[in-house]
Design goal:
heterodimer; A: about 150 residues; mainly alpha; 2 domains; B: about 60 residues; 434 Repressor (Amino-terminal Domain); two-stranded antiparallel ribbon; 5 helices; about 5% strand; globular
Chain lengths: ~150, ~60
């Protein structure tokens, strides 16, 4: 038999998915009614509707997944993110020193054919990846100490 | 912090999963509290005290 927590989770997933579908279909119907099926002007609005639909599912899912955690699991995530993410930032900070050396020559050689956009994306993805990795490690250690 | 959660649970013949369901927490939380590895929040401590009809200080000790 499903527990209350499991039932609440299933209910929340249903609300997230159905809400996203309703937003997408509803917005698309309105946009197509206004612009017509093949009008190029509809494309950015359809993309925005798709984004709104995904944002609803992701935002609602994030909120619900946090609220359905009990206090121990919430503590684990808080501690893991704080320790893991700040640790990752501190550990990756020396990369900035490489940028300072010789006017960034080392990093420029490393990513020679990159565009400014690629540099930006690489920096963002790199930091996100480092923070995720740091928080996973911190999470594993945190749970090991609570058994 | 020490506690008598395991003994109180055993007196009632509840499993860890049953107690977790009654407290609306995960079984891992019950395990961690029973082993003294995690101190519950004040709201959860009150919930535990109410469930076992005992004052908090009768369940949790320094």
């Amino acid at each position: 038999m499903l527990s209350r927590r499991q039932l609440a989770f299933i209910r929340s997933v249903a609300v997230a998915v159905i809400g996203a579908v309703v937003i997408w279909i509803g917005a698309a119907a309105i946009i197509l009614a206004i612009f017509g099926r093949h009008a190029p002007a509809a494309a950015p609005w359809l993309a925005l509707a798709k984004f709104a639909s995904l944002a609803w599912a992701a935002g609602f899912g994030w909120m619900v997944s946090w609220r359905r955690l009990d206090e121990l699991a919430q503590e684990a995530r808080k501690a893991s993110w704080f320790i893991g993410a700040t640790g990752a930032i501190l550990l990756t900070a020396p990369i900035m020193l490489l940028w300072l050396l010789n006017g960034g020559a080392f990093l420029t050689r490393l990513v020679a054919r990159g565009t400014p956009g690629a540099y930006f994306a690489m920096g963002w993805i790199g930091l996100v990846f480092a923070q995720l990795l740091g928080s996973w490690i911190a999470s594993a250690v945190w749970w090991a100490t609570k058994r | 912090m020490k506690n008598r959660l395991k003994a109180l649970r055993a007196e009632r013949g509840w499993s860890q999963a049953e107690l977790a369901e009654r407290l609306d927490v995960s079984r891992q939380s019950v395990v961690s509290i029973e082993n003294g590895k995690y101190d519950p929040s004040l709201p959860l401590a009150f919930k535990i005290a109410r469930l076992f009809c005992q004052p908090i200080e009768a369940i949790f000790q320094d």
